[in-house]
Write a structure and sequence with these properties.
The chain contains six helices and 28 strands. With 415 residues, the chain is α+β, with helices and mostly antiparallel strands.
Length: 415
Amino acid sequence: LLEPERERKPAERALSPKTDPFPAGKGQFEVFSFERAFSGKELFDCPRDAHIETDGNLPIFRLKRGELIKDEDGNAQFNIDRTAFERTDSLKVPWWLGEQVTDTVWIKKELELKNPETDKAALMFFYEIQAHYPRKGGYWSVAGGSQSPLHVIINGTELPPVKPDIGYRSRTEDWRQVDFPPGLLKKGINTVVVHAEKGGDWRFAYENSVSPNRSAKSMDSGKTWDYNRLGENRNENGEYLVRFLLDRCHEQGMVWSAPIALWEKDGMRAFSTMRLTGTGLGKLLQAFLSAARKGDYVAINAYLPRNPDMAVALAELRFIIRAKTGCATTVGFGPRFLHSTGQLHKGGPDSGLFLQITAEPVEDLEIPGQGMSFGTLERAQALGDYEALAARGRRILRLNLPSPKAVRLLVNSLK
């Protein structure tokens, strides 16, 4: 899998401003280049992370706008202090939820920004008011006898008061978005302080930390802060669900191309997690085997027909590799070996070199009712094995042969 090289150029608009659904913003546009050209459906089939989006129906990738700055685990559920759990008259539901914020109980959230520049900025927080009555798909929210607003201070500047939402709300509406001037942001730690007025009672959710000790609670209207004792009874630790939503492109994203052969000839293709050089099959195998160290082993993982002739050919290949490397060698027919030595390959020490051999089927059959053939299933198992090894940083060379009989070419190239 190749990581695309990123090249920043002036805005190159694929669509006119009137029809472009994804404005580039600030005259910047991300252009991706690959070692091999991709186009059309082949490009859309490339996996990509959440920071990448497509440009309409055109085969163009660009960085997504809208960057969320957060440091909690992101489940967006209320952390309930069980010692402050009460029942309503009709249903067993939490009455006191999250962190209570009043005129004397304040909360603080710190969010770090490496780059504060953005076109627009918003504060997002997950909250409820004092009480709620459950209903299908949501609940009725009441203000507990008060509709006093919330006060938000960002880096020392107070925003206009935030009024509570009273009435029916779905669960997705527990997220509140408050726009603020992006000029308030700065490089480094940005501080958000939240408190209510006398008689107000807002509840803020908190979760497990990704970057610990970025949330604090004050019991004396912001005079002193405690980063370790949150919650109703000050016996919880975590992070408040307070985030920044910035209207800008993500700084980077990842697109994974389809596997690109590092060498191919006469229908045979080679893939590897290693930087191997060689202009022919023999030199490529020699480069792979030269990576063997003392105490290593070489595993031949053959997704090939299991018959006497194939067993003889693979045994001969194994003996040659053992003689050239001085390493212990194994042979396994896939996917059968995945349930035995395959466990050692992934869970054991990083002392293996893995020669995976696959081949185009001579005759393929459809699997009834599955929408795929046996050859496709076997190929998927081999690729899954390759990716599992690659994810653990193992040294792999995969050779895809034009036919199973071509395994003899491997034997001859090493003699």
